[in-house]
Amino acid sequence: MRRETEMSSVLMGLLCLVPALAQSQVDINAATMQNIYSNLDARISPCNNFWAYACGNWSFNYVDNFALAEETYANEMLRVLRDNRLIQRGTAPRLYNNMFDYFTACAKNQTEELQLPHELTFYYFEWIRAMARLRKYGLNGVFFEETADVAYNDSLRFVVQLKMPAAQSNYMPILLFKPEIQQLERDLRALYEKYRRNEPLLQSWTLGRLKQEIPQIDWQIYFRELLEVEPSDTELRVEVSDVEYLRALGELLRRCNKTSLELYLRVQFANFAREVNPSSGHAPRVHSCIHHMRALLPLGMNYIYDRYIYRTRSQDTGQLQTIFDSLRGMFGKYLDWNRLQLSPQQIQYLHAKLAVMQLKLGNLPDATTTEDFFDSHYASARFSRSEFQQNLWQALRLRTRLQHAPLLQPGATLQLNHYYVNDDLFRARNAPYFEHERNTLTVPLIFLQWPFYDHRQHSIFQHSLMGFILAHELSHAFEQDGILFDFAGNESPLGMHIRQNSKFENALQCVLQTPTKSLRERLADLNGLQLAYDTFFGMGHDSQRFEYQPYAFEKEFPAPQLFHLNFAQFFCGRLPPAIGHDMDDVRVNEAEKNLHQFSIDFRCRHQSPLSSCEMWRPASI
Ligand SMILES: *[C@@H]1O[C@H](CO)[C@@H](O)[C@H](O)[C@H]1NC(C)=O
Ligand SMILES: *[C@@H]1O[C@H](CO)[C@@H](O)[C@H](O)[C@H]1NC(C)=O
Ligand SMILES: *[C@@H]1O[C@H](CO)[C@@H](O)[C@H](O)[C@H]1NC(C)=O
Ligand SMILES: *[C@@H]1O[C@H](CO)[C@@H](O)[C@H](O)[C@H]1NC(C)=O
Ligand SMILES: [Zn+2]
């Protein structure tokens, strides 16, 4: 779902407002309605600007609901991580001990400016060796990106992926760089511009082949330093995009002044250290520590939250699975209707993908996992209770080592029931996400809280917010990128054929009539809202033909209006700048504009059914 926000600076004083709900006797539906009413700006017409109508009166001391969820989460975790009795009493004592030590040092040993780890002082500077060392500490995407991941055509097999750094939408002005490195930065940008392709060709090679194909870079040194063993030419497999770029990069850096190059890497690492250091930001130190640990030590944090705080796993699992299954059922009907007129084989491909799609609550290994697995996950860590900076460097190195460890076991395949993480996040995910390689939708535990979701809520609230979120994620499996992956998470020519289908392309063009920062996200919003709506009200539902009895907890809004209003609650807030997708008001308004029934539900004078872009949903009858 990709929607992250910054913690608000001023929110701490007033947090008693809502989190107390968990223990209180307040009726959860009444509380949800109260929220909806307090966000509502009745002066605005829902037909003109639905977001402004549903969210215009947002007056919480939080940026948005995510800030509220982060706060509640942090307060709960603080209770547990400050309780050192759990070291003896708890399960997985070693894991708990590690987390306790890390937290304790983080909370009390704040470091404004991090010192470079000793290992990063170079007596003889070689850029490729330096890069590998910095990578061990988590720095990625300087010169090129390196990731331990799974193969494009075999989602159980580990490979190293190499590609050029991701496109930066807003580069820092060159003049802000130190004079000695301005030229290098200019040269790099020229390379990016020259070699960036929309769909770069992917090469699947062994290390030996990589060395032949791109001799401008000493890959043997790079991988020996990174993996801390001599890498095998035949067993280490790599997937390389942007081959021409990497060759040109090797040439450029070989010619480059070593002093400038070293300075350049130092500056990059200093920026990285600032970003990863939890002291940056406005939230209280202890809260920053919690969210920092959630990003850096996710298994430990998830385990502790699940074990000591999360109390409604069984109810939530059952309910979410039911909602998810009903969404899949409706999407299956869409497929049978076959709006895009795909071939039977193509429809079968999509059905197969839908059928085995998984839903996971929290990124944790499956229930059969022993305490021992958890206890040994961070076993090599020796965190101190007083020196935060040492811990931070250790944790970063540990993460890189865990990500790369499977590459050292030739023939090892991914264990789907085990925990794995291959991202380099500094801020943990709050919102649900879909992983194409695993055909799996994960809901982070932090998201399983009111006001996003509560198992006691009426199903109209659950379907309109969590249902929409799950439908949005499910839709990612069928957008222009997701569709390339088959049921097992392997890229498939069948998926490519569907994407090249002219009806599929027309549906994308329709959506692009209104410009968007991310076509993928736009598609997931539009298709997700349509799917969630149909799943709750039934396909072909028409508000004009039915009288709706208001619910016991709500006298004013008929059911369809309530559905739209609660959907919008997910997006209510102070409109923080969006990263990677459109602003929240645009997202809400675009999704509703494309839902045929919306204007009927709100009795808008101007109905715009013909402008709506529908991709999978049967054409309105
Ligand atoms: C906004 O909310 C306040 C209460 O927080 C309420 O008094 C006011 O009437 C609301 N404004 C509108 C326009 O709905
Ligand atoms: C805490 O961190 C500082 C660096 O900011 C360091 O000088 C100090 O020795 C550390 N340890 C303790 C126990 O305060
Ligand atoms: C490299 O650059 C530094 C300053 O950026 C300069 O002092 C040095 O002479 C340069 N070295 C070479 C070999 O050009
Ligand atoms: C995946 O691609 C590589 C390289 O193109 C090839 O050697 C391998 O056999 C393929 N694996 C599968 C399972 O198709
Ligand atoms: Zn999304």
Outline the structure in words.
- With 621 residues, the protein is mainly α.
- It has two domains: 1-114 and 297-398 and 427-621, Collagenase (Catalytic Domain) (3-Layer(aba) Sandwich), CATH 3.40.390.10; 124-276, Neutral endopeptidase, domain 2 (Orthogonal Bundle), CATH 1.10.1380.10.
- The protein is 48% helix and 6% strand.
- The strands form two sheets. A four-stranded mixed β-sheet has the order 1-2-4-3. It has a three-stranded mixed β-sheet with strand order 5-7-6, with helices on one face.
- β6 and β7 (440-443) form a beta hairpin.
- The longest helix has 25 residues, at 313-337.
- The protein starts with 27 loop residues before the first helix and ends in a 20-residue tail after the last helix.
- One 2-acetamido-2-deoxy-beta-D-glucopyranose binds at residues 38, 40-43, 57, 59.
Supply database-style keywords.
binds 2-acetamido-2-deoxy-beta-D-glucopyranose, 621 residues, single chain, 2 domains, binds zinc ion, Collagenase (Catalytic Domain), three-stranded mixed beta sheet, 24 helices
CATH architecture field of the largest domain: 3-Layer(aba) Sandwich
- Number of alpha- plus pi-helical segments: 24
Unreliable residue stretches? 2-23
Structural class by sheet pairing and helices: mainly alpha
CATH superfamily of the largest domain: Collagenase (Catalytic Domain)
CATH topology description of the largest domain: Collagenase (Catalytic Domain)
Give the distance, in angstroms, between the N- and C-terminal Cα atoms. 31 Å
The CATH class name of the largest domain reads: Alpha Beta
Average per-residue pLDDT, rounded, comes to 89
Largest sheet: 4 strands, mixed
Physical arrangement of strands within the biggest beta sheet: 1-2-4-3
